[in-house]
């Protein structure tokens, strides 16, 4: 059973459902069916006292005797709840022959539909299924939800149901309606309902509906998506992604992170490529402006942190100049994530008192860096976008006096499932990167602390080292001997 089940809430009001079996299990199923307004047709030689009572009251129909396929004539669904495997199988077979969905209690194999574990708050129903694999897990989650959701959710759904037509008329546009609901849910109405002040809640909702407050102007939220592991998103990032109408994301943002966003938000990839950098940035500005001016909530989602080599500053200046309101949600930048996930403390009392974040992605940036300062010892360099210019990088640092034996770690796809860490010394930096075919996105960490990757690694595979054949004289160096 590899494919997922298709979840479905069935309207069984006034519809006949065959229940085969008259014991305690059948009684529970019948009770659930009655709750849904269905007409249970129970077939069994005998009934529990309660089932018998319902039969007397005419709430259910009783067919005495043993199962025959014609019991399935004219029903919408079938539930087999006997404790005889033979009978259950016969019911399942007969149902399949008639293209009827059948549930065989406690037998996922025989069932063509499953009854989920359920949390109910009035008309609000939360159904949980483990696809028949682990009903205990579904029940466990149901208990957790039971404690999480108080009864007022039912009142809220009922209240909004009563006002549904008015709300639609007041906010005919989907986006505006959704914002109204979001504000409402974050406001006083749910609190009043929790306090069992239903009348006051209704008044408050009426007030919100008749208030002539302007529909919201669009906004842009600059959100740091972190390095890839969705667990590194902040709660504020999640909230912003949940409220977004439009998400403009970089190519660097992982699929795992994007999957956390509101399902029906429009996702637009605005990944930057090496060519056409500046036009692309203009396009991004134009897109932000267009959607914000249309009153939408725009999330500009960037890898890592928006203010670390993310051009977040430029984008905000642009928004400011065009009077678009904005917010910023910081993210975990690659240097922090790569360091953490490769076991490299960026500062260390014994090895590094400082940290520099630099980028070295093109000749221009290489030429404008202060190499003398970068070559100082007892500091850590975190180099972004550095896969290409490694030769030049090494030459300049060594020329300014940085020891050739300074350890480095290249962290590729940091924090992701595909993370690789490649280590060595400044002397063999470019060759080692080439040997292991390190690809973007990768972050270079250079400094004494990088050697700690061998002892402190905890995520993914152990660090890879320089190829032994290339530097036979290095083979006994501590950073190499431990990496196999
Ligand atoms: N704003 C981003 C950086 C964007 S520049 C941040 O704060 O992280 C893009 C560079 O970041 C890449 O070339 C790479 O050097 C680095 N980078 C981003 N994500 C990374 C990851 N998951 N693993 C390694 N490096 C990463």
Automatic annotation (TrEMBL):
Modified residue annotations for Phosphoserine: 130
State the SUPFAM superfamilies in the record: NAD(P)-binding Rossmann-fold domains, Siroheme synthase middle domains-like, Tetrapyrrole methylase
Question: Residues in domain Sirohaem synthase dimerisation?
Answer: 152-209
> Which residues belong to any copy of the Tetrapyrrole methylase domain?
219-430
Q: What is its EC number?
A: 2.1.1.107, 1.3.1.76, 4.99.1.4
Q: Which GO terms describe its biological process?
A: methylation
Q: Which residues act catalytically here?
A: 250, 272
Catalytic reaction annotation: siroheme + 2 H(+) = sirohydrochlorin + Fe(2+); precorrin-2 + NAD(+) = sirohydrochlorin + NADH + 2 H(+); uroporphyrinogen III + 2 S-adenosyl-L-methionine = precorrin-2 + 2 S-adenosyl-L-homocysteine + H(+)
Molecular function GO terms recorded: uroporphyrin-III C-methyltransferase activity
Quote the pathway field. Answer: Porphyrin-containing compound metabolism; siroheme biosynthesis; siroheme from sirohydrochlorin: step 1/1; Cofactor biosynthesis; adenosylcobalamin biosynthesis; precorrin-2 from uroporphyrinogen III: step 1/1; Porphyrin-containing compound metabolism; siroheme biosynthesis; sirohydrochlorin from precorrin-2: step 1/1; Cofactor biosynthesis; adenosylcobalamin biosynthesis; sirohydrochlorin from precorrin-2: step 1/1
For the region Disordered, give the residue spans.
464-484
Q: Pfam families given for it?
A: CysG_dimeriser, NAD_binding_7, Sirohm_synth_M, TP_methylase
Q: Where is this region: Precorrin-2 dehydrogenase / sirohydrochlorin ferrochelatase?
A: 1-205
Which positions fall inside the Siroheme synthase central domain?
121-146
Q: Where does NAD(+) bind?
A: 24-25, 45-46
Summarize where S-adenosyl-L-methionine binds, as residue positions.
227, 303-305, 308, 333-334, 385, 414
Give me the ranges of the annotated region Uroporphyrinogen-III C-methyltransferase: 218-484
Claim: S-adenosyl-L-methionine is one of the keywords in the record: yes
| InterPro entries reported for this sequence | 4pyrrol_Mease, 4pyrrol_Methylase_sf, 4pyrrole_Mease_sub1, 4pyrrole_Mease_sub2, CobA/CysG_C, NAD(P)-bd_dom_sf, Siro_Cobalamin_biosynth, Sirohaem_synt_dimer_dom_sf
Q: Which domain of life is it from?
A: Bacteria
User: What are the entry keywords?
Assistant: Cobalamin biosynthesis, Lyase, Methyltransferase, Multifunctional enzyme, NAD, Oxidoreductase, Phosphoprotein, Porphyrin biosynthesis, S-adenosyl-L-methionine, Transferase
Record's PANTHER family? SIROHEME SYNTHASE, SIROHEME SYNTHASE-RELATED
| Biological role stated in the UniProt entry | Then it catalyzes the NAD-dependent ring dehydrogenation of precorrin-2 to yield sirohydrochlorin. Finally, it catalyzes the ferrochelation of sirohydrochlorin to yield siroheme.
Q: Which family does it belong to?
A: In the C-terminal section; belongs to the precorrin methyltransferase family.
| Name recorded for this polypeptide | Siroheme synthase
Organism whose genome encodes this protein: Pseudoxanthomonas winnipegensis
């Amino acid at each position: 059973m590899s494919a997922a089940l298709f979840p479905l809430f069935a309207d069984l009001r006034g519809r006949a459902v065959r229940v085969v079996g008259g014991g305690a299990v059948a009684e529970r199923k019948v009770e659930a069916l009655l709750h849904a307004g269905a007409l249970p047709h129970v077939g069994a030689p005998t009934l529990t006292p309660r089932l018998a009572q319902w039969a007397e009251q005419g709430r259910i129909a009783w067919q005495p005797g043993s199962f025959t396929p014609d019991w399935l004539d004219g029903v919408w669904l079938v539930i087999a709840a006997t404790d005889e495997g033979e009978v259950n199988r016969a019911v399942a077979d007969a149902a399949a022959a008639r293209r009827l969905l059948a549930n065989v209690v406690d037998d996922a194999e025989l069932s063509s539909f499953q009854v989920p574990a359920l949390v109910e708050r009035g008309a609000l129903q939360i159904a949980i299924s483990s696809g028949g694999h682990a009903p205990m897990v579904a029940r466990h989650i149901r208990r957790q939800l039971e404690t999480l959701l108080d009864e007022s959710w039912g009142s809220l759904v009922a209240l909004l149901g009563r006002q549904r037509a008015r709300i639609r008329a007041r906010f005919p546009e989907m986006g505006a309606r959704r914002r109204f609901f979001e504000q409402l849910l974050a406001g006083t109405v749910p609190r009043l309902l929790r306090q069992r002040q239903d009348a006051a809640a209704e008044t408050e909702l009426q007030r919100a509906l008749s208030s002539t407050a302007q529909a919201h102007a669009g906004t842009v939220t600059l959100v740091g998506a972190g390095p890839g592991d969705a667990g590194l998103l902040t709660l504020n990032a999640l909230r912003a992604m949940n409220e977004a109408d439009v998400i403009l994301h970089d190519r660097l943002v992982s699929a795992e992170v994007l999957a956390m966003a509101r399902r029906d938000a429009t996702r637009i990839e605005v990944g930057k490529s090496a060519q056409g950098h500046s036009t692309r940035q203009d396009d991004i500005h134009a897109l932000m402006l267009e959607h914000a001016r249309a009153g939408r909530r725009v999330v500009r989602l960037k890898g890592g942190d928006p203010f670390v080599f993310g051009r977040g500053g430029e984008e905000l200046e642009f928004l400011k100049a065009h009077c678009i309101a904005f917010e910023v949600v910081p993210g975990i930048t690659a240097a922090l994530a790569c360091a953490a996930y490769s076991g490299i403390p960026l500062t260390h009392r014994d090895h590094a008192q400082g940290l520099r974040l630099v980028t070295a992605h093109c000749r221009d940036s290489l030429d404008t860096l202060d190499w003398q300062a970068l070559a100082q010892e007892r500091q850590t360099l975190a180099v972004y976008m550095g896969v290409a210019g490694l030769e030049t990088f090494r030459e300049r640092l060594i020329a300014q006096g940085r020891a050739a034996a300074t350890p480095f770690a290249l962290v590729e796809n940091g924090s992701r499932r595909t993370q690789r860490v490649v280590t060595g010394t400044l002397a063999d930096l470019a060759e080692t990167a080439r040997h292991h075919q390190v690809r973007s996105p990768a972050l270079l960490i250079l400094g004494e602390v990088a050697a700690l990757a061998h002892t402190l690694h905890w995520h993914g595979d152990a660090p890879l080292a320089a190829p032994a054949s290339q530097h036979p004289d290095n083979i006994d160096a501590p950073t190499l001997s431990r990496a196999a």
